[in-house]
Amino acid sequence: MNARPGPSRRTVLRTGLGVGGMAVAARLLPSRPGGGPPPAWTETAAVAGTAAITFPDWARRARIADGTFDDDADPERDMLPVIKALKGQNASVIELDTVLSNWLTDQQFTEHMGKVKSFADLAHANAMRVVMYYPSLEVISAGGEKGPSFYKNSNGKDWVQRGLDGSPNVFYGSLVVWVDPGDESCWLSPNSPYRDYYLGRVRALAATGVDAIWPDVPIYFDGALSWCDASSWAASAFRADTGLELPRTADFTNPGFRRYVEWRHRNLSQFQLDIAAAGRSVNPELVTFVETVTMDYQYAVLTGLDGAQLRRAEGVSQVWEVDILGNYDGMRHATAGDWICLVSMYKYARAAGGTKPAWAFSYGWKADDASLVMAELLAAGCNPYEVKSPFKNDSTDTAMRTRMYGFAAAHERELFDAAPGAAVGVYHSSASRDYVSPLQASGMYVNTTPPAGVSDWWSFESPEESCTQQKWLGEFRGTVKALVYAHIPFDTVTSPGLDGADLARFRVLCLPNLQAVSDAEAQVLRSFVSAGGTVVITGPAPTALDEFGGARSEYALADVLGLRRADPLPAEHSHTFGAGTCWYVKDLLGLSYLAHTDAASADRLLAPVRAAAPASVSLTGDPRIHLELSHLGDDTVVQLVNFTCFGESPAPFKTTPAPCVVSLPIPAGKQVTAATLSSPDAPSPARVPVPWKVVDGRATVDVTVSQYAMLVVTMT
């Protein structure tokens, strides 16, 4: 989460903050209006409880940059130069960040909407889109510690989030960087009448004609208190939904508390759906991008925000805040394991967005580390929002942004229209994340100790914060690492709302340390194997818990596993079920590989993957070249990201070009008619013809990757 600016403060800071050993990245911003030419629509779907709508092309190809103006800004003198500068940097969408983080009276809010409309009108006249930042559950009161404040002078005392002991979730400056000394931060309950207050202002925003709304981090904020919201409003909502009384202590052995953990995810998800619906009630073409700071790691458990809950909801997607290691260092002192965590987060963001655009932060400290981070973001299929850490309103380097955004604009179809080519999926189980060995540590990265001289690190140098210390997350991330190092294309599969269509294109599904599953989820997995799929499940208690973390009397997939809970677990086991196969390994091979890069663990984990889904593309070269595969008509698109600058230990950042050989099978009846290479590292983003060889029915191409290269092989 990043801090967001006040009316005269333009730096938006990101920081790590710890509560109970939890490293948090925090950020909050203001609102925006929009309008302009009607968008080109590409697909039709529906958000629960609303009419069928479509998702616009401009959002699917977005290249986002921050813009703002002071409250006394003149449209021509102050606003237009901002718009033209961002357009000149090849941005296509402006995230407008003004004063909406602050407590505004109704009159002040209404007057500000006029300013926002002026900015949006100018942007549309210059063929730019506008998305308005508006914090969703926090209200800042400038000078509120000693003077009037939202909490003290309005309905704040009644509407505020509360901890399990009843304490209000309100605090005063310096606890976090985005709240100045003397200012008040008040976090509101989405179950209170604040919901109607906020949605009313969202409707007013929509009336200005903005293209999209950017609600910031709708979370149960844990900076001052843990396990909010336990207000009377939340207690009533929890009781109505579950029939249970709200727990008063945080105890994962208590079934009622585990239900509370699960309920908070759904509760915040519904709030986000209501925000999107409120905006569209005024402007049916409005879309919503929720800033989501919780990725694949543990922070979703503490704050309640599980981004994958919205995967199937149309008209609302996410801006994923993919955090980095150091506020004033970026990823410059990452280890290779840390980079794998970044890969995992971007892959999760793309998967949790479903078929919708997945916007994501692209943080950097200097031009070279910033471009490598954006390369990973683009390869994963996300839309870039490039910012300099820790300043959300600045570019790391405008020349770098212009170059990288120009490449993305030149290759929109390959980046955002191509069909995924992976035959292997890695299952991210939200329930297992929540209930398997729950810890108060985020597990965001591997390395918890910053190099000498580096400040504002993601962790507090506590080893338990590392994902190598977490049995579920470490196994998940280690499986990602094994596949990346083996150059096996894969995609993440998120769990909320899983159905058979999600698995139809896969031949293998990895189930790292899968323990907590619902009966419906188990049936989808059972059907996948029965129809001929292969699953690889690891860990000491395979499907031994239900979706609320309660112990099952029998494994949910006992028939698929060919194992019963009463029997001793074998070290390894394979079982034919229907037309498919289940491979089981008791050891946490992924966790071992994440921590030690031991080849034996990777070989055991990947042997059934290689047997069931031989790679359709192979790469000979350094394992630290990340390969992504997709298809666009007759074109096979291979994206390569070179992270050989990172080793087992932190070292100074330096890009070293890496040679490799890419090999693809030529289908019967087809022949290679063209091979081209393009890169944002080159003087031009244009595709340049490269030679290929055909050997034993495979086309091979020699490639040298500086940071990022896109190889397109055409077969007709």
Provide structural commentary.
- The protein is of the alpha/beta class and 716 residues long.
- Helices cover 30% and strands 23% of the residues.
- A hairpin with a 2-residue loop joins strand 21 and strand 22.
- The radius of gyration is 25 Å and the shape is globular.
- The two termini are 47 Å apart.
Please state how the strands of the largest beta sheet are arranged side by side: 5-6-7-11-12-13-14-15
Global geometry: globular
Low-confidence stretches: 1-52
Q: Count of helices?
A: 20
CATH superfamily of the largest domain: Copper homeostasis (CutC) domain
- Using the coordinates shown, work out and report the CATH topology of the largest domain: TIM Barrel
Number of E strands: 31
Quote the distance from N terminus to C terminus. Answer: 47 Å
Oligomer: single chain
Per-chain topology:
Elements: E1 16-19, E2 22-25, E3 41-46, E4 52-56, H1 57-60, E5 64-67, H2 75-88, E6 93-96, H3 106-125, E7 129-135, E8 138-141, H4 150-153, H5 156-159, E9 170-172, E10 184-187, H6 194-206, E11 212-216, H7 232-242, H8 255-282, E12 287-292, H9 299-303, E13 316-320, H10 336-352, E14 359-364, H11 367-380, E15 383-388, H12 398-410, H13 412-416, E16 419-420, E17 424-428, H14 430-435, H15 471-485, E18 490-494, H16 500-503, E19 508-511, H17 519-530, E20 534-538, H18 558-561, E21 572-577, E22 580-585, H19 589-596, H20 599-612, E23 618-621, E24 625-632, E25 635-642, E26 658-665, E27 672-678, E28 688-689, E29 693-695, E30 698-705, E31 708-715
Parallel strand pairs: 5-6, 6-7, 7-11, 11-12, 12-13, 13-14, 14-15, 17-18, 17-19, 19-20, 20-22
Antiparallel strand pairs: 1-2, 3-4, 8-10, 9-10, 16-24, 21-22, 23-26, 24-25, 25-31, 26-30, 27-28, 27-31, 29-30
